[in-house]
From TrEMBL:
The lineage of its organism: Archaea, Methanobacteriati, Methanobacteriota, Candidatus Methanoliparia, Candidatus Methanoliparales. It is found in: Cytoplasm. SUPFAM superfamilies: FMN-linked oxidoreductases. Involved in the biosynthesis of isoprenoids. Catalyzes the 1,3-allylic rearrangement of the homoallylic substrate isopentenyl (IPP) to its allylic isomer, dimethylallyl diphosphate (DMAPP). GO terms for biological process: isoprenoid biosynthetic process. This is Isopentenyl-diphosphate delta-isomerase. Residues 174-338 form the FMN-dependent dehydrogenase domain. It comes from the Archaea. Coiled coil: none annotated.
Length: 372
């Protein structure tokens, strides 16, 4: 019997979780590792005085961290959103549910998303929809996905790399910018445009700048590669051509630090730094490069399939790691991270230099309150 398209979308959710749980899906180059925050052996601050709370889109975060869009849309995904929601509510962080397309097509899937708001009544929670879907969705559909979780914002994801390595992928990217613009006029919550692991270039950001989006989430390469994820799916389905293509494009994309520096240069709206954020040091690094908050996705999959306590423990490790990094770089507040010197080495240095970003200036940044 042939599978219905809706059943296929739903099954794909589980396949993505399983692959991200069991297989190696990270890009083989993590540019955040080519970046060093200089250690201060005499920080002259009390670690207990460090504050990391952050206002993001009028919402108070107790730490600058959001658990990024992962899942929903299959009965077995409810537990994941539930465990993430419980942990972020307790810690005062934010989260986004995964693409809500499936719940529009099949209302029985709504509960897999609704659980997030049920378990996190006060936290920042974002809706999520693919840019290609915007063409087919009505205003009522959009209102439905927002109301479903009483969303504080809506992420529009750009994932043309992934779509290109999927047999069922939607490869028509025409008219997307117009659709983003229409969405901004249609809803009364912030619209955030996000990539999904291939980053946003200066040139793309220039075009997004002319829309009414409220924030941008760069989601660069260096973490989860959706070409890798689709490689495993294609291999399992016996589609060798797509599997080979998945391998070819495994490391495609703009590394997270580059995307951040390029976007930060030209856009004056909040920026989320994600793609390969794997500990509290990485959180500090993306903030030092201009992000307002950091986003984490795949590391949360494993604990979220187990329990809320496991998610809590992971996020607490990120938070403590951020505080230690701030202590060792003498930063009492998050905005001071933007002033500390950063040494950029290797491929990242070469890439940034060729794109006209002054890496020497970054290495020689001077703290205005340094040594206070
Ligand atoms: C299992 C899984 C499912 C995902 N599903 C979505 C999705 O539905 N919508 C979306 O915008 N991004 C989705 N993403 C992408 C993440 O939000 C994030 O942009 C990307 O994984 C890079 O972050 P990371 O390196 O921390 O994983 C998914 C990621 C994972 C690991």
């Amino acid at each position: 019997m042939h599978e219905q398209p809706d059943e296929r979308i739903s099954r794909r959710k589980i396949e993505h979780l399983e692959i991200c749980l069991n297989d190696q899906v990270d890009s083989s180059y993590k540019a955040l590792d080519d970046m060093v925050l200089i250690h201060d052996a005499l920080p002259e601050i009390d670690k207990d005085d460090i504050t990391i709370d952050k206002k993001f889109l009028s919402h108070d975060f107790k730490a600058p961290i959001i658990v990024n869009s992962i899942t929903g849309g299959h009965p077995e995904t409810e537990i994941v959103n539930k465990n993430i929601a419980r942990a972020i509510e307790l810690l005062g962080l934010g989260m986004s549910v995964g693409s809500q397309r499936s719940a529009i097509k099949d209302p029985s899937m709504e509960r897999t998303f609704k659980i997030a708001r049920k378990e996190a009544p006060t936290a920042f929670i974002s809706s999520n929809i693919g840019v290609q879907q915007l063409k087919e969705l009505t205003k009522t559909d959009i209102e439905q996905i927002i109301d479903m979780i009483d969303a504080d914002a809506i992420f529009v994801h750009l994932n043309f790399l992934q779509e290109s390595i999927q047999s069922e992928g939607n490869k028509n990217a025409e008219g997307c910018l117009d659709e983003i613009e229409k969405l901004c006029d249609m809803v009364n919550i912030p619209v955030i445009v996000k990539e999904t692991g291939a980053g946003i270039s200066r040139e793309t950001c220039e075009r997004l700048k002319d829309t009414k989006i409220s924030a941008i989430d760069v989601e660069g390469s260096g973490g989860t590669s959706f070409s890798a994820v689709e490689y495993y799916r294609a291999k399992k389905e016996g589609n060798t051509i797509l599997a080979d293509l998945g391998k070819d494009f495994w490391n495609w994309g703009i590394p997270t630090p580059i995307s951040l520096l390029e976007c930060h240069d030209i856009i004056n709206i909040p920026i989320i730094g994600g793609g390969g954020v794997r500990n509290g040091i990485d959180v500090a690094k993306v903030i030092a490069l201009g992000a307002d908050i950091a986003a984490i996705a795949r590391p949360v999959v494993k604990p979220a399939l187990k329990s809320d306590k496991e998610v809590l423990a992971l996020l607490e490790r990120y938070i403590e790691g951020l505080k230690i990094t701030m202590f060792l770089t003498a930063c009492r507040r998050l905005d001071e991270l933007r002033e500390i010197p950063i040494v950029i080495t290797g491929y990242l240095n070469e890439y940034l230099t060729l794109r006209g970003i002054d890496v020497r200036k970054l290495a020689q940044r001077k703290r205005s309150r340094y040594g206070h």
